[in-house]
Amino acid sequence: MKTMTPEEYQQLAAIAKAAAASQFFQDLKSEAQALMKLLLGYELGLTAAESLMGINIVQGRPEVSARIIASRIKQSQRYDYRVVESTDRKCVLRFFENGEPVGDYEYTWEMAQQAGLTAKQNWKMYPKAMLFNRCLAAGARMYCPDAASGLYVEGEISESVEVQRAIAGAPLAQALPERTQALPEPRQPEEQPAPSQVTPEREERVTHLRRIHQLARQLGYSQEQYREVLQKVGGAPSTKDMTVAQLRAVREYFETAAYQRLGDYNENEEEQDNDEQEQSASLF
């Protein structure tokens, strides 16, 4: 974390005051909001202009432009990415760590449809750019966590809020279940291939399953609520019937819901649960 001097803080506070008073930035509701954007931008190494124009706070989480995420990856001495494929139907990015490929991330038009995004005007007019934005943000969180810093690309949270409201048919506060609801004890894993049978695709599948089940427990979803999300986001009543791409879409839904409901989600809990999940990767 960068150490800010008192002089730097005073300079940012003065900029925040001027920005809020100027009414140039229509999304700014207060001087304090402007200052929070500038402070976050300072931590990310952004200029004041980049912070004010490129950062939005949605449901308490930062949304930034794809350019900012791409810049942080490219400027990193540890991470990088390359475009493998980018069309109106699919985006595939390959991520590198210390010069070595660590994995590909794919985001398709079908995944966006399953997430309820493609009816929006931006998706209709700029499908290639929107697919790239989602692919970059999600791939960076998976393969470049130090560079992504829990950031979300523009629209990733706000659009998900609208989808969740539509699924639940109620305001967001009512759309997510209370955490006090208990889920049934997990049964045997859906997939536990022998070590000799493990392939990259099956390994990715199991990774998505573990994350989905962990987040469903933490959010307090009942079996009925869980299966409703599977059907409406993943297009199937069970994860057994889903492709890797469908599982990824469900995982992204639950991750966004967790950040919105639980605030600063403690991702260390995933590591703490690994031993248990090695024995049971499925809740239902």
Characteristics of this structure?
56% helix, 284 residues, three-stranded mixed sheet, alpha+beta, three-stranded antiparallel sheet, 3 domains, single chain
Please identify the structural class as seen in this structure: alpha+beta
Helix content: 55-70%
Low-pLDDT windows of residues: 170-190, 264-284
Kindly state the number of beta strands: 6
Distance between the termini: 41 Å
Task: Give the number of domains.
Answer: 3
Major sheet: 3 strands, mixed
Average pLDDT over all residues: 76
Give the number of helices.
Answer: 15
Radius of gyration: 20 Å
Strand order of the largest sheet: 1-2-6
| Backbone shape | globular
In words, what does this structure look like?
The protein has 284 residues and is an alpha+beta fold. A hairpin with a 3-residue loop joins strand 3 and strand 4 (90-97). Residues 170-190 and 264-284 have low confidence and may be disordered. The protein has 3 domains: 6-57, no CATH class; 67-160, no CATH class; 178-279, no CATH class. It has helices at 6-22, 31-44, 48-54, 66-75, 109-114, 121-125, 127-143, 145-148, 156-168, 172-175, 200-219, 223-234, 244-262, 268-272, 274-279, and strands at 55-58, 61-64, 79-86, 90-97, 100-108, 152-153. The protein contains 15 helices and 6 strands. 33% of the residues are buried. It is globular.
